[in-house]
Amino acid sequence: MTYKIHKLKSGLTVLVAPMPSLESVTITVWVKTGSRNEDPKVAGISHFLEHMVFKGSKKRPTAREISQAVDAIGGEFNAATSKDWTNFHIKASKNNAETAMDVLSDMVINPILAKDEIEREKGTIVQEIAMYEDMPMAKIGEVFEGLVFAGNQLGEDTAGSPKTVKATKREDFIKYRNLHYHPKNMLVTVAGGISEEKALDLINKYFSSIKGQSYRDVQDQVFTIKQKEPQIKLHYKKSEQAHFILGFMGDPRDYKNRFAQSVLANILGGGMSSRLFIEVRERRGLAYAVKTGIERYQDTGYIETYVGTDPNKAEEAIKVVLDQYYGIANGKLPITKSEIDKAKGNIKGLLALSLEDTEAVNAFFGESYLFLGKALTPEEIFKKVETVTLKDINFEAKKLFVPEKLNLAIIGPFKDKFKFDKIIK
Hints:
Elements: E1 4-7, E2 13-18, E3 24-31, H1 45-52, H2 63-71, E4 76-81, E5 86-93, H3 97-109, H4 115-133, H5 136-148, H6 162-167, H7 170-180, E6 186-192, H8 196-207, E7 231-236, E8 242-249, H9 258-269, H10 275-282, E9 287-296, E10 301-309, H11 314-330, H12 337-354, H13 358-372, H14 378-386, H15 390-400, E11 406-412, H16 418-424
Parallel strand pairs: 2-6, 7-11
Antiparallel strand pairs: 1-2, 3-5, 3-6, 4-5, 8-10, 8-11, 9-10
């Protein structure tokens, strides 16, 4: 699988990944902005704007008209907001690619942003924020980032707060769009059963109206790691289960040895035969959900393990996870060749399966190209993964798993962090 890059006269970048055997096509519009780029007074505006794009556009003035247009072709549409990107997509049959392109471009380029819709949507978003407070498995990620990125916009919740959402006005959306929604700060990705020529014809037809005259590059508030000792953050919630993330500060998107770190994370908690799944769930029955992953931004990143457990067993679960982290780093629990081979196979297999979906292909190529100006093909990634050695993995473990980089965030019925402090220090 490969892709082709085209630059339009407006400055808009287009990435096309033809998949001739497929009947579907997904068009995704990426904007290189998210919650880390916001004025704190209107925190959550990136996410709020994501909602408003669906509420009416120049050609289809109401939310109903937009949804009817997509339903009429049996399409699917959605959007997402992260700390540093926002995207919007429509997936449809290849025969309906033009309609999908028409609807999506009009939504993103020409949202009405009606004042009455803005006021109405404020209530919806406040309820969404409240919903995630009642979903600790989803909320714990924001709590963890609030700890490790304290004092930086990266540490703020993507949805903002009820106060900042209620304070947002139509003028704030206009200002935000003028600052960020410009061709040079955007990318359109197209994947599926559509030719490169056809995709370009449609994009030129429907996206040529994006204006780019006033664009200026917006510099992120750079995050610098200043941590010198382990940190803990408790988020009190009366609940039947405790949810925690235990993680270490790591490296940014372009870190050259990121594939060794990916193999390491997979060995720790990448599947049902991973070390932590076996140790935490199978041998001790401490949790149902256990997983390890890596999050990367342009200037920083981290490796983390999530566990949901009985509050009375949280201390034991934390100790088990730490034992594996430090056991790999100090050589007391050495990684074996069979673990490496299994992790490599798991990474490659899951990637191959995910890329059978056109939406996933856009995500795979899109985020990488948006931030790095290039994207590796699946075949190139397979080769990178295969070259990872035991020496590479041990080097990364020793570099990452040191106490001064350790962070623990917990949601549960805890008010005193002393007992957890003892464990991690």
